[in-house]
Automatic annotation (TrEMBL):
Domain SET: residue ranges: 55-194
Pfam families assigned to the protein according to its UniProt record, in alphabetical order: SET
Family matches, as InterPro entries: SET_dom, SET_dom_sf
Name assigned to this protein: SET
Length: 206
């Protein structure tokens, strides 16, 4: 476990603030080799340590907001289309656990129900889960019920500082019709969690 780092304002004391990913015991040497093999198609980002000056965590008190009573991530300055905002850090893990390949082991996957788990390599089953540790990016909400469309997106990156693949948050590009104008100072940063996220939770509710 990395040493505790100075956290941004409004950071919950129960969550570890990260400046580098942590690794689950489910991650093998082969997984690390795959993650540390550069893919030239990925955007290469020189990531920085510590709180980002581009964003701020803000409690939400609007009764109409789906995350009312929780927090969201807001832009602290104007962000142009295509801008890299910050890295999504957490616990890098493999699901299912390769140490328990026998189905009869019946080992529960603690990440399968996490609301903060993003896929990093679907073929290898590698994900990054910010449930218990992460960066400000873990506070990004889905656009549904808040805005007509998302203004940001998750994209895989090559982390130059660590020499490893990772997940980043970007302002949506302008698009062919130039509809995306960036994110203005004070606006909430919103992504699409995807149909799979909401479909799984609908099934759980039923």
């Amino acid at each position: 476990m990395p040493p505790k780092q100075p956290a941004p304002k409004a950071w919950p004391s129960s969550i570890l603030y990260l400046t580098a990913p942590i690794y689950s015991p489910t991650i093998t040497k082969d997984h690390l080799t795959a993650l540390r093999t550069q893919d030239p198609t990925l955007p290469s980002i020189n990531t920085t340590k510590g709180p980002s000056n581009l964003v701020k965590i803000t409690p939400i008190s609007s009764p109409t907001h789906p995350a009312n009573g929780q927090s969201g991530l807001f832009a602290s300055m104007d962000l142009k289309p295509g801008t890299f905002i910050l890295q999504y850090l957490g616990e890098i893990h493999c699901s299912p656990d390769p140490r328990h390949s026998n189905p009869e082991d019946n080992i529960a996957d603690t990440h399968s129900t996490s609301n903060y788990d993003l896929s990093l390599d679907r073929e290898l089953g590698i994900g990054v889960d910010a449930d218990k540790a992460g960066t400000e990016a873990r506070f990004i909400n889905d656009y549904r019920g808040v805005a007509e469309r998302p203004n940001a997106e998750f994209k895989e990156i090559w982390d130059e500082r660590r020499g490893e693949r990772g997940m980043g948050v970007f302002v949506l590009p302008e698009g062919r019709k130039g509809k995306n104008k960036g994110i203005r100072k004070g606006e909430e940063i919103l992504v699409s969690y995807g149909r799979g996220f909401w479909g799984a939770r609908k099934d759980d509710g039923e």
